[in-house]
Task: structure prediction
Amino acid sequence: MADLKKQIASGKIAPVYFFQGAESWLKEEIEEQLKAALFPSENEAALNTLVLYGPDVTLGQIVSAASEYPMFTEKKLIVVRQFDKLKKVTGKDAAQQQDESLQRYLTDPPSFAVLVLDADEVDKKELEKAPFKHLKAFRHDFPAIKNADAFAAERARESGWEFEPDALKTFAAYIEPSSRLICQEIEKLTLYASDKRPDRRINLDDVCDCVGISRKYNVFELEKAVVSKNLRQCSGVALMIMEQEGQKEGLMNIVRYLTTFFLRIWKLQTPGAQQLSLQETAAMLGMYGRQEFFAKNFIGYARQFSAAETEKAILALREADAALKGIIPSPDDKFTLLKLMQRMFS
Result:
């Protein structure tokens, strides 16, 4: 995505873009950048931007709209949201004609239009079918964020800020891995810290104050209790986190954090992992930049848990996640938490 932003910023704007993936915030961000690059003012952007929705239009109507000359400027922008849910036409011949009209358009797109086709995540098999297969040369993927800390660190750097390692670890533990939420929280953090941090470094105090995390009962304390394998201490800290954050949200944060924790340990217990350098280990664990410091901790943790203990913990976390989603029955969230702790350490 960084390369795409640079291309647009340098004036290299393609006539067609096909965006597909779950991260709508990032797609909308690129669309706003295109508006700014194409039009000198917000007023001109509003007059010359047409937003269509897949369920309301056919493929032929999209091609027709993109082929019409703009009325007020040299360029126009057409954005089609929910492109994966296009209105169907009746009859095989009609569908083929619309498919051919798209192919003709893509062969020689008009110079006055920029067409953005914005789809949710499309199945790999569907991407090989029409109309998506014709758009391979224009495709940009926006998959769901898997590594919240790496994404958050990169976004902060783009704004001229840097997370201190413990601040990033805490931030990623308490923020849902969604580009929208992460970007919004980073904007709040940088505004909050702008008068306090001339070095433009976000520290743990900033995260705790702005995100609303208790310094006493947080995932760091929970991690210490887990490593000590102290069932009573783990349950106590986890219950306090749930009390601070709300039962459902607190339990979700705990399950997400401990899942990442034990999956990293599991990776380090695979054959050959102990022969990696610290930098290679950090990369394998999804820990970048200043976070490499914490890779040393996980190398030690991997020696403190047996493979059987790690597997048991991961299975217990999967069960807790299923209870949270209502897939398996549970009386309440506290019951789910206490059962998780017992399953992990019994």
Q: What stands out?
A: The longest strand covers residues 113-119. The mean pLDDT is 90.
